[in-house]
Amino acid sequence: MSIDKLFIQDFRNIASVSVDLNQDLNFIIGDNGSGKSSLLEAIFYLGHGKSFRSSKADNLLMHNKLSFTVSAKTQSGAQLGVRKGFFEHLNLSEIRVSGEKQTKFSALAKNIAVQVITPESFKLFFGGPKQRRRFIDLGLFHVKHGFSDHWREFTRIHKQRNACLRTKTDLASLNYWSDVFATSSEQIAQYRAAYVEQLTKELSFWLKIMLPKVSDDIVIQYLQGWNSKRTLLEVLSQYRDKELAAGYSLYGAQKFDVRFVLNGTSLDNQLSRGQQKLFLLALTFAQAQLIAREKRVKPILLIDDVGAELDIHSRALLNNAIAEITCQVVVTAIDKTAVAQLVPKEDNYKMFHVKHGKLSVISE
Ligand SMILES: Nc1ncnc2c1ncn2[C@@H]1O[C@H](COP(=O)(O)OP(=O)(O)OP(=O)(O)O)[C@@H](O)[C@H]1O
Fold first, then answer.
1. Looking at the DSSP assignment, which residues form a beta bridge with residue 351?
2. Which atom of ligand 1 is nearest to the CA of 38?
């Protein structure tokens, strides 16, 4: 669900911000180090319970403070909030959804779907499989009902099987856990295959807007985590000694990946950095639109430092995509010229200026 009102306190260099966002499009303009990314990070934190930049939550806390707070009122009237306290090496999270205390961040994620694109995103995305796995599973979490229950169950089974492989003592237990691991992996793989197919169809629409010259030649390949010509149980039995030597599961749904292929070879080797960023934007827009359609909520898309890598022509293409998407979009840039191509003619947007962590409205 999109955010109506946002409140941030003691988060990085933001001492206190209370702001009404536009439902469709928001621009945050500010110099380097002013706090633009911190603002996006706070919104991202509300949807994910972590930062997109730093793995340590205490980096998010304003220097010399003991807790930070991020809260929001969504368009549907839900009040979401998280307060993270750091008291004598004790990290405490207080999560609330419309006044009710919650124990898990997933309670917040059920109410908002936040995706981010930063200047670093495409380097990470075309690197190791971690980011791609995260991206696909985030879509699945929001779009495919039942996936998160299956995933939780899979994670439990995976841990048990890894414990058997690590200790190597009880081979009867290993046989049992291999059986259930294979069944659970196949279920997860089916969910993912169906989702990747859905995403591929949606992507084609966004590529026609953002990368029209190559849109028909791009394919997403889904790699399920083991040889697709064989059952996982067959693979596990063939490589049993290898897995015992490694001490953990080498095959299964946890090893899945997706490859983006252009004319038969890896897309990132053929596209310029600007084009790679447009591809990633198209992919993220596709996922956000699927979430919007399936969940019937407006996802939130954060685009950090939009000027980086994108020339005027590319920004004009991005503008066409923003005009089409049913999302709440928040874009940051160093100056107004970087967003000139993105500002709509009608007045349905808000523009803010940020300086030393303080936000002021430029136009609405
Ligand atoms: N824990 C913290 N407490 C207080 N200030 C912090 C903390 N962490 C970072 N800062 C400061 O916050 C400022 C804002 O950082 P941020 O990354 O949001 O900048 P930005 O506006 O996105 O800049 P850029 O355009 O360079 O990316 C920086 O000057 C940084 O030094």
1. 27, 363
2. 18
